[in-house]
Amino acid sequence: MKITLVHGSPKKENKSSATRLIIDYLAEQLAGHEVHRANANSRLSFPMDVIVFVFPLYVDGIPSHLLKALQSWQDLFIAYHIKTKVYVVVNNGFYEPGQNYPAIAMMKQWCKHAGLLWGKAVAVGGGGSITAAAIGKGPNKNLADALDQLALEITEGGVMLEDDYVKSNLSRGLYRLSAHLVFRLRGRHYHAKLKQQ
Ligand SMILES: Cc1cc2nc3c(=O)[nH]c(=O)nc-3n(C[C@H](O)[C@H](O)[C@H](O)COP(=O)(O)O)c2cc1C
Fold first, then answer.
1. Ligand 1 atom closest to residue 128's alpha carbon, by position in its atom list
2. Is residue 195 part of a domain?
């Protein structure tokens, strides 16, 4: 199976990008298949069976650089009647994965417009903790389960095609507390006064 994983965060593709960590994990689960990596600046290589868009939620939507790429790629899909299957993984900074609902709706709409086949979406809340521990450990246990399931569905097809809304394994209170702590430490690093933090 030929699978393209699109990194849709404008952050550099290093360990500080939650998107990059999700893509690395998914690529491991898809070992044995022909996996290609792309980003918003890439020329997509065809044919492909599946394309997975992994991106952060930006202002309740799709990051603008990725939106621009989607607009240019859709012409290709339409012109060549390409029927690739689309999966989406969106992660967001607030605790609630439901925040990703509008971005997923936008991706579904785009998919229809480009004539592609919708697979499913995984919405990941509490994105701040993805870079804090390995996927599968501590706050990221539920995330590993959801990505394992997604990999299975991509390769075997149609096991559980409902969109998946994944919560961090941290409680809401603990997530909030650690977010405050991280913001305070960052503020201190940049010599911000406590009032400004
Ligand atoms: C410009 C900008 C807009 C964002 N908008 C939202 C938002 O609307 N809702 C939300 O929950 N998180 C929002 N976030 C937080 C990111 O979605 C979150 O930090 C994500 O985990 C970053 O993923 P990445 O490391 O792959 O870029 C925003 C972040 C930035 C920089």
1. 21
2. no
The pLDDT, as a whole number, for residue 194 is 74
| pTM for this model (two decimals) | 0.95
Could you list the residue range(s) of the whole structural domain that residue 25 is in?
A: 2-170
Q: Is residue 189 part of a domain?
A: no
Q: How many domains does the chain have?
A: 1
Locate the ligand 1 atom nearest the alpha carbon of residue 99 and give its number.
Answer: 11
Q: Which of left, alpha, beta for 17 (phi over 0: left; psi -120 to 50: alpha)? A: beta
**Domain holding 24: CATH number?**
3.40.50.360
**Domain presence at residue 192:** no
Q: How far apart are CA 138 and CA 127, in angstroms?
A: 13
Going by C-alpha positions, the residue among 86, 92, 71, 69 that lies closest to residue 22 is 92
34-59 confidence digits (pLDDT tens): 999 999 999 998 899 999 999 999 99
